[in-house]
């Protein structure tokens, strides 16, 4: 009997590991992914398409951050910076593609403000708070409308490069302080890359003239002594292509397409790449969550292998995404409720005073999936921190699917309001091994409760 049970569980695990992981965030629309590996964690910075698109154009006010240690569950750190960080700015829209890099324990967030050029914010933590060290834009050029999509890489010799641009590509050599640059090169420090077809491939423009495929969204990095420039190519709809060089300053050689156009992708695409725990990942965005709204995009990830010579294969955008976690989640320490491997219905919010992020907008039937949870020999009980203004809600703890084995039901009573936090607990059935866990929320009408963290007890 036990054997049949174990076999059934294994089959379920295979089935759930085949389930769709893309897009990786369902609580917000996220775009222009920029991963940063720091201290055993992948921090993923994204731009953010608002739920309501204004004037049928990019409606983007802030930048969000997510982190993961297993590549399947992502902890939401909320909006870590916004246009409001720039006191000198007289603009409420235009928070386009971001990238964060760490240097000497400080985190530098390079952001374009559409129409205003490229600026920088600094923090002591990867998740902020970020402050504006300059009180003005970082890159001073005479083409601010084209100054979007910054990408930064600090080379082994300590020289940092900031590349950016649409539809041309420029760079500055950042000084060690990361918030100023060498003004002695190029035009007041700004070096213009030669947009040749050898460097970036060829494509006929609308006027019939041959130009390069390079469009925007550069992602600059070095791997095994090869410099890579990945970018969105060939106008809209965009595909992803790349070029390589032996030096960070070029000359660049066009290497071809790495992600084709596909029906569920948006008219823009924008990539970031990272190696983590021995695997290589490509981050990009699609429009599947909004069902074909190009101004409501969502970040996706594919695992891939570089070819032996360092070239990048053609990578297919899939619904499955990253199916294998690179580590298991420990449920016996507090797990933030906003550590999510998939969800339906819920949102996250940030407490404006404490900056604590929690799960909210929980309605009857919504759920959160947490992947690859290591039960070890099994738990006896479940504990959760919740806040509610109503009685009669429940958290069902289910195994491997939203209708899977019910491990326990935790009742959530009125705690005195949606910001009056209290700990609730319930007994759970003993299960061992690694499983996906589904928290399925049940109750009456409207917002049931807020959910801050959970943990299992042995
Ligand atoms: O997200 C706004 C713009 O769309 C980005 O800056 C481009 O790379 C494209 O993804």
How are the elements arranged and paired?
Blueprint: H1 2-17, E1 29-38, E2 41-49, E3 62-68, E4 74-82, E5 99-103, E6 106-113, E7 117-123, E8 151-154, E9 160-164, E10 170-174, E11 191-192, H2 197-200, E12 202-204, E13 210-212, E14 214-223, E15 226-233, E16 239-245, E17 253-259, E18 272-276, E19 279-286, E20 298-304, E21 335-336, E22 339-340, E23 342-344, E24 347-350, E25 357-360, E26 367-374, E27 381-387, E28 393-399, E29 406-412, E30 421-427, E31 434-442, E32 450-457
Antiparallel strand pairs: 1-2, 2-3, 3-4, 4-22, 5-6, 6-7, 8-9, 9-10, 10-11, 12-13, 14-15, 15-16, 16-17, 18-19, 19-20, 21-32, 23-26, 24-25, 26-31, 27-30, 27-32, 28-29, 28-31
The structure holds beta-L-arabinofuranose.
Would you write up a description of this structure?
This protein is mainly β and 458 residues long. It has 2 domains: 6-304, Tachylectin-2, Chain A, CATH 2.115.10.20; 335-457, Jelly Rolls. Helices cover 4% and strands 43% of the residues. The chain has 2 helices and 32 strands. It has helices at residues 2-17, 197-200, and strands spanning 29-38, 41-49, 62-68, 74-82, 99-103, 106-113, 117-123, 151-154, 160-164, 170-174, 191-192, 202-204, 210-212, 214-223, 226-233, 239-245, 253-259, 272-276, 279-286, 298-304, 335-336, 339-340, 342-344, 347-350, 357-360, 367-374, 381-387, 393-399, 406-412, 421-427, 434-442, 450-457. It has a 5-stranded antiparallel sheet with strand order 1-2-3-4-22, with no helix packed on it. A 5-stranded antiparallel sheet has the order 23-26-31-28-29, with no helix packed on it. A hairpin with a 5-residue loop joins strand 3 (62-68) and strand 4 (74-82). Residues 1-18 have low confidence and may be disordered. Bound molecules: beta-L-arabinofuranose (FUB). The site of beta-L-arabinofuranose (FUB) has 13 residues, from strand 1 and strand 14. Beta-L-arabinofuranose binds next to strand 1 and strand 14.
């Amino acid at each position: 009997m036990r054997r049949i049970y174990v076999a059934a569980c294994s089959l379920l695990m295979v089935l759930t590991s085949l389930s769709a992981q893309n897009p990786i965030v369902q609580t917000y629309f996220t775009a222009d992914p920029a991963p940063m590996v720091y201290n055993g964690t992948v921090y993923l910075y994204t731009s953010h398409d608002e739920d309501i698109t204004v004037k049928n154009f990019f409606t983007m006010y802030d930048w969000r951050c997510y982190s993961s240690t297993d590549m399947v569950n992502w902890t939401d750190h909320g909006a870590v910076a916004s246009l409001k960080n720039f006191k000198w700015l007289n603009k409420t829209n235009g928070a386009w593609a971001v990238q964060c890099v760490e240097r000497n324990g400080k985190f530098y967030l390079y952001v374009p403000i559409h129409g205003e050029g490229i600026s920088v914010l600094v923090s002591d933590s990867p998740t902020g708070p970020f402050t504006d060290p300059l009180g003005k834009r970082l890159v001073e050029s005479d083409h601010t409308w084209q100054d979007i999509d910054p990408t930064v890489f600090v080379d082994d010799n300590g020289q940092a490069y900031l590349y950016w641009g649409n539809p041309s590509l420029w760079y500055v050599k950042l000084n060690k302080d990361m918030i100023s640059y060498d003004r002695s090169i190029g035009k007041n420090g700004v070096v213009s890359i030669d947009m040749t077809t050898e460097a970036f491939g060829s494509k006929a423009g609308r006027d019939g003239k041959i130009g390069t495929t390079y469009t925007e969204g550069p992602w600059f990095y070095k791997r095994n002594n090869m410099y890579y420039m990945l970018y969105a190519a060939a106008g809209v709809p965009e595909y992803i292509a790349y070029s390589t060089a032996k030096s960070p300053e070029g000359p660049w050689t066009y290497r071809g397409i790495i992600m084709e156009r596909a029906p569920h992708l948006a008219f823009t695409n924008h990539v970031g790449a990272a190696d983590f725990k021995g695997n290589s990942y490509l981050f990009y965005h699609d429009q599947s969550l909004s069902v074909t709204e190009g101004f409501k995009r969502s970040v996706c990830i594919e695992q891939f292998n570089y070819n032996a010579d360092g070239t990048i294969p053609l990578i297919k955008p899939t619904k499955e995404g990253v199916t294998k976690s690179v580590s298991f989640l420990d449920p016996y320490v507090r797990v933030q409720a906003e550590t999510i491997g998939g969800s339906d219905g819920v949102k996250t919010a940030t407490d404006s005073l404490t900056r604590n992020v929690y799960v909210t907008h929980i309605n009857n039937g919504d759920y959160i999936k947490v992947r690859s949870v290591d039960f070890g020999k099994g738990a006896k009980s479940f504990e959760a921190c919740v806040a509610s203004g109503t009685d009669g809600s429940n958290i069902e703890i289910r195994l491997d699917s939203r209708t899977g084995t019910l491990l326990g039901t935790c009742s959530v009573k009125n705690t005195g309001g949606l910001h009056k936090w209290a700990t609730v607990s319930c007994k759970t059935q003993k299960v061992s091994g690694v499983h996906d866990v589904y928290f399925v929320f049940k109750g009456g009408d409207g917002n049931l409760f807020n959910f801050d963290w959970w943990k299992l007890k042995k």
